[in-house]
Design goal:
This protein is an alpha+beta fold. The protein contains 22 helices and 25 strands. 42% of the residues lie in helices and 25% in strands.
């Protein structure tokens, strides 16, 4: 029989949690309930949604906000707490409970994972024991929980009930003969020695602890042991009442959950590592394809056919890059690594650029593209421009792709802030006159790798654009929704809403980039070192820099890079991260560990864009990070930023006054 995989283990464990008799409650640091099982809902007489909107002190009346903060800190310190309390159900009735909570972390998140057991029966039993010996013996014999009477002197067993005999797997007489010491697991025998001494001395009334016991058949069983003192009229402890609950299955479920969690985390790490490696392996050759096609396109001697072929190469490379980026974005979303990069930007310019881009695509299919912007919408806003651009490109791209005749509309409106609020809520509506989306597909299209019938018919894309866009929208505090009747000609309508903060203007001047061909005159003699093990990528970057007018040398690994740096002292090093002999990170650390090296600019050039690689290389001393595949403009902007280099624009070569670009 094959072993269960991580997902199956998680599913089985989830099923066990939801069907266990004890109440399971998971609590966040701020006191909010984040998970409850079916037993908790039934015991407290609340629906699950009601409980998940409540804080722990709303069902635990003996606990306030301040007391919760104290309990949370104690839990963080100790890792596990066991105590008794009371829960209040929906009707107001109080239920005594025994609670065991564990401090559990997952990434940056921490939770108190608690199991609450109704101890009303145990309380009732304890009360009955104190009131009447005769009634005690009756209850003792019939109790469903294992019980025993122990002598204070030496913990000798005086009386055992049938439930305990069943749990320990031997008769009461055999248990008396062997003694508690010989049925307790050797590693647990002295675990509660101090608590036992305090109980017998009258310093505490009871305590609860989990212990392992060796059954009559040699198997190990977990028992939750509760010991309570029995006192005479003078208050002297004369005996101890032991209650043992079988928690073996609960312990096994917890261990299986931990194993499943570890397996899932290991699988996730393996997936992230695989994606990181695949990203590097795909982006490195793609860098050469896009880079050399860009360089070749600048050759003025090309024929029209050659230009068209280069355009097709570049377009295909861009399409492949888009597919790679979609998969990587989805991986980042699943790993919770997507973050917002908010900044001030010109919203009107963004809309205009998209309109120009998609007017050409629409015209190629004989479609009309109408773009309407409410004049009251703020021109300059503060938000994540990159993610907004990607979402609108996905929506407009789909609309043009799946519309064969008619038109595509983009309407931009906004809800102005009320009162003293400054935040606007922008609404982008993309309508088309295509085939529409069947009602059954409306929810499925937001699932990764799922396409509606029209997408399958087109046989294009990965089915990731809409799921990524909705995740981006929700990350920004908005949402992406769809409406369609699924009727040809009536098309579909996607509505994207996001909150933005209006700003009075841009902090810096918006500069229109031109094609840059060489360094401006009167520049220092810049020495640049290109360190790259991939021959094509090394030649591409070296050729690009040489054409711009820089003095360029190359190295094939980190060790060669250190040698070139020592003998040549370049102003800036383009450092690939993954290389044989000595990788880029180690070479950077060596260079930056010296006074001369601290004056040398090191820019990481890497195809690895998954996970924390960017942060790691910056921590190693790199001054900047450029992702493969890069564009000439990326390289030029980086040089201007770090060397204050100035460049002559293309129109200067035609006898027109030179335009310069600098940092």
């Amino acid at each position: 029989m094959s072993q269960l995989n991580a997902d199956q283990l998680l599913n089985f464990t989830q099923f066990a949690l939801d069907h266990m008799t004890e109440s399971a409650l998971w609590i966040a640091a701020d006191g909010h309930l984040v998970y409850v099982n079916e037993s908790a809902c039934a015991r407290l007489d609340y629906a699950r949604d009601e409980l998940l909107s409540m804080c722990i002190w709303e069902i635990e009346p003996d606990l306030g906000v301040a007391q919760w903060a104290v309990r949370w800190e104690e839990l963080k310190r100790k890792g596990r707490l066991t105590f008794e309390s009371r829960h209040r159900n929906k009707s107001g009735s109080l239920i005594p409970v025994e609670i065991e909570i564990d401090y559990v972390t997952h990434g940056d998140l921490a939770y108190a994972c608690g199991i609450a057991r109704d101890i009303s029966e145990r309380k009732r039993i304890a009360s009955a024991l104190r009131q009447s010996e005769e009634r005690f013996r009756s209850i003792f014999a019939s109790a469903a929980i294992g019980m025993a009477l122990l002598d204070v002197d030496g913990m000798r067993v005086q009386l055992v009930n049938p439930a305990l005999e069943r749990f320990i797997g031997m008769s009461g007489e055999e248990l008396k003969r062997r003694g508690v010491e010989n049925v307790t697991h050797p590693d647990d025998w002295l675990k509660d020695a101090n608590l036992w001494d305090e109980l017998c001395a009258g310093q505490r009334d009871s305590y609860t602890i989990d212990m392992r016991y060796v059954r009559g058949d040699g198997e190990t069983a977990w028992g939750r042991l509760t010991l309570s003192s029995a006192c005479n009229d003078a208050g002297v402890v004369t005996g101890v009442i032991a209650m043992v609950e079988d928690v073996t299955e609960r312990r096994r479920a917890a261990e299986e959950l931990a194993k499943a969690r570890d397996a899932a985390e290991a699988a996730n790490r393996a997936k992230s590592e695989f994606l990181a490696n695949m990203s590097h392996e795909l982006r490195t050759p793609l860098n050469a394809v896009l880079g050399f096609s860009e360089l070749m396109a600048q050759d003025t001697n090309l024929t029209d056919e050659q230009k068209e072929n280069l355009t097709l190469i570049n377009r295909s490379g861009e399409h492949l890059l888009g597919l790679i980026n979609d998969v990587l974005d989805l991986a980042k979303i699943e790993a919770g690594r997507i973050t917002l990069q908010a900044d001030d930007f010109d919203l009107m310019m963004l809309v205009e650029e998209l309109a120009q881009l998609f007017h050409l695509r629409a015209a190629a299919k004989g479609l009309a593209l109408d773009v309407t912007v409410d004049p009251n919408v703020p021109e300059f806003v503060h938000a994540d421009e990159g993610k907004l651009r990607q979402m609108l490109i996905n929506l407009l791209g789909n609309a043009v792709k799946f519309t064969d005749k008619g038109k595509v509309n983009l309407t931009v409106t906004g809800m102005a802030p009320a009162g003293t609020r400054r935040r606007w809520r922008l609404r982008f509506v993309v309508r088309d006159t295509g085939a529409g989306i069947a009602r059954d597909d409306l929810s499925a299209i937001f699932e990764p790798f799922i396409q509606a019938a029209r997408g399958k018919a087109a046989r294009e894309g990965t089915g990731l654009g809409l799921p990524i866009s909705r995740n981006f929208a929700r990350l920004m505090g908005g949402d992406l929704t769809v409406a369609s009747a699924g009727i040809a000609g009536e098309g579909s309508e996607f509505t994207l809403e996001i909150p933005v903060d209006p700003v009075d203007g841009m902090n810096g001047e918006i500069v229109e980039m031109r094609q840059l061909v060489r360094l401006a005159p009167d520049q220092p003699h810049f020495r640049l070192l290109v360190v790259e093990d991939d021959d094509a990528s090394r030649k591409l970057l070296a050729d690009l820099l040489a054409r711009l007018g820089f003095d360029v040398r190359t190295a094939g690994n980190g060790r060669e890079a250190i040698e070139r740096w020592l003998e040549w002292q370049p102003h800036l090093i383009w450092m690939d991260m993954r290389m044989p002999v000595l990788d880029g990170r180690a070479a950077t650390r060596h260079i930056k560990s010296t006074r001369k090296g601290q004056a040398t600019v090191v820019v990481a050039v890497s195809a690895g864009v998954i996970g924390a690689e960017r942060e790691a290389v910056l921590a190693d001393g790199c001054d900047d990070f450029v992702a493969k595949p890069f564009r000439e403009q990326d390289i030029v902007e980086c040089l201007a930023r770090h060397l204050n280099a100035r460049f002559v624009a293309a129109d200067a070569t035609a006898g027109v006054a030179a335009h310069e670009f600098s940092s």
